[in-house]
């Protein structure tokens, strides 16, 4: 009935499911499945979201480049650096996240956490994805082709080792964590 080559292997599906459950669990434990946590991040009153995101980017960078270097994965599947499309997508994503109080990952995890408001948001995300799929041919020709740098990354542009960029991300994250800690201390002292 179905072409089984369309689906991933059962092992890959199981690993994906386990990874998804672990990711959702960590999002929930980090309180980023809560509407108020995300909205308070946008209001610069709670920095939990940026801490979780920076940690995920650094750990993800170490994991991806580590697996690549160890031969656990063959190559990175890099998408084109389409600057205009990325900028527009970022604006749409940011506005949607600010209005809804969830991003796609935290929205799905919030549903698992019992948040009824996230259901409407995730349905809206799916509707938006369906609309984008319909207009994609026009969008590809008229937007994504503008300022398309091809499969360019900082690593390919500079020829430097990816580990320098991972190290740079770690330094930025540590500096951000220290700065956030100072802001939080001042906020607590100011409230006392």
Q: Given the structure, what is the number of helices?
A: 8
Distance between the amino and carboxyl termini:
67 Å
Flag low-confidence runs: none
What string gives the helices and strands in order? HHHHHHHH
* Class of secondary structure makeup: mainly alpha
| Major sheet | none
Quaternary structure type: single chain
Tell me, briefly, the overall form.
globular
Strand content: under 5%
Q: Taking all residues together, what is the mean pLDDT?
A: 90
The residue fraction in helices comes out at: over 70%
Write down how many β-strands occur, each being a DSSP E stretch of 2 or more residues. Answer: 0
Radius of gyration: 19 Å
């Amino acid at each position: 009935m179905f072409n089984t080559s369309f689906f991933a292997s059962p092992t890959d599906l199981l690993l994906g499911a386990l990874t998804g459950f672990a990711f959702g669990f960590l999002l929930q434990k980090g309180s980023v499945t809560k509407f108020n946590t995300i909205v308070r991040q946008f209001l610069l009153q709670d920095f939990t979201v940026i801490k979780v995101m920076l940690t995920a980017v650094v750990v993800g960078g170490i994991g991806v480049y580590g697996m690549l270097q160890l031969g656990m994965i063959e190559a990175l599947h890099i998408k084109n650096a389409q600057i205009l499309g990325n900028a527009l997508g970022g604006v749409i994503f940011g506005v949607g996240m600010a209005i809804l109080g969830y991003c796609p990952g935290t929205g799905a995890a919030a549903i698992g956490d019992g948040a009824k408001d996230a259901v409407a948001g995730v349905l809206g995300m799916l509707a938006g994805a369906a609309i984008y799929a319909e207009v994609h041919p026009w969008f590809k020709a008229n937007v994504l082709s503008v300022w398309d740098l091809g499969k360019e990354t900082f690593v390919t542009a500079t020829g430097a080792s990816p580990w320098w960029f991972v190290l740079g991300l770690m330094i930025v994250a540590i500096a951000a964590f220290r700065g956030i800690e100072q802001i939080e201390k001042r906020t607590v002292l100011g409230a006392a």
